[in-house]
Structures are given as structure tokens and as C-alpha cells.
Amino acid sequence: MAKKQKVKTPALYKLLGPALAVPTGIVVKKVADQAWIAVRGTPPPKNPDVPGVSWGDALAWAAVSGVLVAFGRLFAARGAAKAYTALTGKYPAGANADSAA
Prior knowledge:
Elements: H1 11-40, H2 55-88
């Protein structure tokens, strides 16, 4: 079996990822907190060990925040690839363009 050659990911693309991920993470956290407060009327359970936090609330917050964090990561990754493509005119090497289903 032939070895796959490593493709070096461009430095600009490596910088665009965190540049988009950090503000996206901040927005996702604020949206999640506000949505929880709007629906439940109380702040989200940040620490499930605190007395009074039910299993239901802890699991619901884990599910909601997990989905929103995954969405944020997807948004940031796609945004970084799109920005890199707009700046350079080509898809970033090493971004795994062949993984589309």
C-alpha cells in the first residue's frame, strides 16, 4: 500500500480558522445563554455539581450547548475555507476537499 503524501496546510488558512472561531464561540455562548433564559426563565446550569441542578436540566444544557458549539465550529471552518478561497482563488490544501459525501 502506498503512503499518502502529507499536504502542508497554508499558514493563512491556519490563521483564518482561529480568527473566525473565537468570535463565533463568543456569539454562540451568548446566544445559548439568552435562549436558555428565554425558554426556561433561569440562567443555564453552568456547573451540574451545584445542589439544585436537576439531571434533566444538566442533560438539556449539555445537549443544547453541544449542538450550538458544533454549529459554531462548522460555521467557522466553512467561513475560513471560503475566506481563504476568496483571498487566494483556490481551495486551501490540506482542508480535505474530498470528504464531501
